[in-house]
Specification:
This protein has 353 residues and is α/β, with parallel strands linked by helices. It has helices at 3-38, 44-52, 60-72, 75-81, 98-106, 121-124, 155-164, 166-173, 213-238, 261-268, 292-309, 324-337; strands at 90-91, 127-131, 137-138, 141-146, 183-187, 195-200, 277-280, 316-321. The strands form 2 sheets. A 6-stranded mixed beta sheet has the order 2-8-7-4-6-5, sandwiched between helices. Bound molecules: adenosine-5-diphosphoribose (APR). The site of adenosine-5-diphosphoribose (APR) has 26 residues, from strand 4 and helix 7.
């Protein structure tokens, strides 16, 4: 082939590659996106490619549709689509309540017979202390220790997003982030639980582990707001669809976007299952550096106060700890905030061996 022709072809190839390939590819992907918008089972490879090219912007419509679809799926359907076995998943009935857990502990400890002054056995039966992976819990909601972008990260945030799949990120992308101390609820998609309550804990990297009052207030707000948002969710979903007023916004669903009010109010008619059981990780005690025992104290104190105010709103609160040090902290503090009759409320130092 003549050198001149070769050079011309080489120039055309370089020019195409540099100036045309990308725009043509983007046009192709945007075409793919409109197919995804119309289809209910958008394949995650295409979504991943669209996201890589910064093209994928899930509209509220597609997100709400996916949220509806996954909240209606059975555990078996989710397990079939996800990569976990039903046998690996734990339900509330598999987890010992705090009184049962304490009884088992008592077998190794000399229990004294002081009856606890503010023991409330009904509340204590709602409490579960469990060590393990929160993504394996088949409870109504699990709490995610997220960051303010709500777009995923490491630690428990990374584990939850990895197990839930890309549709969780799609819903989070429409929530415009989350303030520290606030909480937002999404569906849980490919997780065994139905909902994820995302909250952002305070960053607490004080070298001498002294916690500022502000950080303590923010962590308290995380636990309280998660439960307040659950209460709001349950109140909204208690009523029958025909009582929902036409332009009332569903909590946590922004009515912005290009939808007409009619389509939004029609969507608001869909009602979601209540949240009666919720699992908390040890918020802020990992990457955010909150001292573990102080965080456990905030968690237990806040949950006890909330349950005293709303004794009938929840059936179970699970403290899902991951590290042995957290187990020890909660075993030490649970008898203080959820005292049991005939169980030692506080242990002397030699018990902490
Ligand atoms: N299940 C339960 N608990 C877990 C899991 C899991 N799969 N993985 C980690 N944990 C525990 C950690 O051991 C720690 O006790 O969750 C607690 C919280 O640790 P982080 O996940 O690091 O959360 P946090 O300290 O609040 O920092 C939040 O980390 O992951 C990023 O995106 C997140 O930027 C945010 C920051």
């Amino acid at each position: 082939m003549l050198p001149r022709v070769q050079n011309t072809l080489r120039f055309v190839a370089i020019a195409f590659n540099h100036y045309l390939r990308q725009p043509i590819y983007r046009t192709f992907l945007i075409g793919k996106m409109s197919q995804i918008e119309d289809s209910t089972d958008s394949d995650s490879e295409t979504v991943a490619e669209l996201r890589r090219c910064h093209i994928y912007e899930p509209s509220r419509n597609s997100v709400l549709r996916d949220r509806d679809i996954y909240l209606k799926k059975s555990l078996f359907e989710i397990a079939e689509e996800a990569d976990w076995q039903i046998s690996e998943v734990l339900t509330i009935s598999d987890l010992p309540t705090w009184p049962e857990y304490a009884k088992a502990l008592e077998r190794t400890e000399e229990a004294n017979n002081t009856s606890a002054a503010n023991a409330n056995t009904d509340l204590s039966k709602k409490i579960v202390l469990w060590q393990g992976d929160i993504t394996m819990l088949n409870v109504d909601a699990i709490v995610n220790a997220a960051n303010d972008s709500l777009l995923g990260g490491g630690g428990v945030d990374g584990a939850i997003h990895e197990s839930a799949g890309p549709k969780l990120l799609s819903e989070c992308e429409t929530l415009n982030g989350c303030e520290t101390g606030d909480a937002k609820i999404t569906a849980a998609y490919l997780l065994p639980s139905q909902f994820v309550v995302h909250t952002v804990g305070p960053k607490c990297h004080s070298p001498d582990s002294v916690v500022s009052h502000h950080s303590e207030m923010l962590l308290t707000s995380c636990y309280r707001t998660c439960l307040d948002k659950v209460l709001e969710h349950n109140e909204f979903n208690k009523r029958s669809p025909d009582t929902a007023s036409k332009d009332e916004e569903r909590p946590g669903v922004s009515a912005k976007d290009d939808d007409s009010n009619a389509s939004i109010s029609k969507r608001l008619q869909r009602f979601e299952p209540p949240i009666r059981s919720i699992a908390f990780p040890c918020i802020s005690t990992g990457i955010y550096g909150y001292p573990k025992e102080a965080a456990a104290e905030v968690a237990l104190k806040t949950i006890r106060e909330w349950l005293d105010e709303h004794p009938d709103e929840l059936d179970a609160v699970i403290f899902c700890v991951f590290l042995d040090s957290d187990v020890r902290n909660y075993e030490k503090l649970l008898p203080v905030y959820f005292p049991l009759p005939d169980y030692p409320q506080s242990r002397s130092s030699e018990d902490e061996t």
